[in-house]
Specification:
The chain is of the alpha+beta class and about 300 residues long. Strand 9 and strand 10 (about 165-170) form a beta hairpin. It is elongated and about 60 Å long. The protein is built from seven helices and 17 strands. The strands form three sheets. The chain has a six-stranded antiparallel β-sheet with strand order 7-6-17-14-9-10. It has a six-stranded antiparallel β-sheet with strand order 13-12-11-8-15-16, with no helix packed on it. It has a five-stranded parallel β-sheet with strand order 2-1-3-4-5, sandwiched between helices. It is found in: Cytoplasm. Involved in the regulation of the intracellular balance of NAD and NADP, and is a key enzyme in the biosynthesis of NADP. Catalyzes specifically the phosphorylation on 2'-hydroxyl of the adenosine moiety of NAD to yield NADP. Pfam families: NAD_kinase (PF01513), NAD_kinase_C (PF20143).
Length: about 300
């Protein structure tokens, strides 16, 4: 019997109608389904309620219903137990939650039949000194680590080191250190390059740098990046993890970023490549903004 964790975003799945459909389908397939407290109460299935650790630890795989944000949140927990994740997209543009709602049952049948592949996605680890606990705080992420100014702060000064070699001072709104998976997110919006998620690299991208020559830097997964917070008097500096978790930093704090030994295991049920998905999403963005340019090269 398959043990499956079902993690819906209750703001995306209004009334949990999609969750209820999948729960009913999995039950008929003789699968054991586990839910967190809130969705279990909404669906009147307290018998399926488990705590977060139990769901990630004891499930054969996790089904995430929502968008990429929901997937990112689940990935940090699932990675600790090496539990694979299948993302069902209920949002708009899903690079990670790539199964569309209309084909969710078809994709689930493939997983139950063993007709799927698991992609291992690189994650990052950030370490920073925790003054409250007088020790080191370690955080993992799938997409990116951001070090940015607060909403009312001025430009902040950041010193970048790679393998303890000083690179440069970056006066900017902040800086993003991204995995290949995260390169199509905040990094791309800040003008950074797109990286193939099957590669093991990191990209450092400044946000609105106060310098004409400051550009993204791509480094290997074996490199260690250090970001030292400068003397930013009166400025609020924040460390963010996948854009979802925030921690305040102080002057002269050093954030060390490297490849994590944890990985996200992403279940794939289609033969679409990363570039197929990328092209599809870009075409979707074009149609949303009313772009009608050419999407292919024609012979002259």
């Amino acid at each position: 019997m398959k043990k499956i964790g079902l993690l819906p975003n209750i703001k995306k799945d209004i009334g949990l109608t999609n969750t209820a459909m999948i729960l009913d389908w999995l039950t008929k397939k003789n699968c054991a389904v586990n839910l967190l407290e809130t969705p279990a109460k909404i669906l009147n299935r307290s018998d399926l309620q488990k705590n977060e650790d139990e769901i990630y630890r004891d499930s054969d795989f996790i089904i995430v219903l929502g968008g990429d944000g929901t997937f990112l949140s689940a990935s940090r927990n699932a990675a600790i137990y090496d539990t694979p994740i299948l993302g069902i997209n209920l949002g708009t543009l899903g690079f990670l939650a790539e199964v569309e709602k209309k084909s969710s049952l078809e994709a689930l049948q493939k997983v139950l039949d063993g007709e799927y592949a698991v992609e291992q996605r690189m994650m990052l680890e950030a370490s920073v000194y925790d003054r409250q606990k007088d020790g080191e705080k370690k955080l993992i992420c799938l997409n990116d680590i951001g070090i940015t100014r607060g909403s009312l702060s001025r430009i902040i000064d950041l010193k970048i080191f790679i393998n303890d070699n000083f690179v440069d001072d970056y006066p900017a709104d902040g800086i993003i250190i991204s995995t290949p998976t995260g390169s199509t997110g905040y990094n791309l919006s800040a003008g950074g390059p797109i990286l193939d998620p099957n590669t093991n690299m990191m990209v450092i991208t400044p946000i609105c740098p106060h310098s004409l020559y400051a550009r993204s830097i791509v480094v290997s997964d074996g490199d260690v990046i250090k970001v030292q917070i400068g003397e930013n008097f009166g400025c609020d500096v924040i460390l963010t993890i996948d854009g979802q978790m925030g921690y305040h930093l102080s002057n002269n704090d050093v954030v060390t970023i490297k490849k994590s030994h944890y990985k996200t295991s992403l279940i794939k049920t289609s033969n679409y490549s990363f570039f197929d998905i990328l092209r599809k999403k870009i075409v979707g963005i074009r149609s949303e903004i009313g772009y009608e340019g050419e999407t292919s090269v024609k012979d002259s």
